[in-house]
Amino acid sequence: MGKQEIAATLRRALSDVMMERQASRSSPEVAQALASLKQFQSRRMARTHADLLASADTEAAARFFLEDLYGTHDMTQRDADIERIVPTMVRLLPDAALETIADAISLDALSERLDAAMARQLGPVFDEYAYAEAYRKVSPRADRERQIELVRSVGMSLCDLVRIRLIGGTLKMMRGPAQLAKLGELHQFLERGYLAFQAMKSPRKFVDTTVARETRIMENLYAKSPNVFDIE
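^ thats the sequence. predicted structure below, dont judge the formating
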């Protein structure tokens, strides 16, 4: 995929995610239910990947996945940063870095849409059984498969990024200019991902492990397994 095609994907994803966030904020009831859902899913993923969070080798990468790719905090500023400088990113960033950002925002947009549909179905108070029922009712399997594929794509893009010579020094040098240009959120996102993956012994194994577990849970949910969050 060329840079202009990646940029077009990024612009579409930014438009989608901003629209989804605005729609959710416009309804206090949906916003409250969405916050509850994100907290539930964040806790579930922390349990699923507890060993990765506990390992010195994979902790930073696991936290990047759980907090930067799927977190409970507001990512509005990061999205606004990216929207302002798409042309600059296309000109200056290597393909792997640009693709990492595009895939991350595409994942964010899809997750926001799926989460909003579930939040409207569940309301602010629910249990694991209600969660599983809502998941099957409002989540097309193709969308959930695409969500997991985007997780893999972001991970593999980061694996490619850490192999680029001098990229670490470039990101370090960009800290000051990024802050002055009010692009700190975007720069920190990129640098956290790079440093987390650069520090791992086997980043591809980490991606494969994460994707395999999330795929197993998706399959459990659609199969109506009695132990939907069991990855053994």
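Residues 3-222 form one domain.
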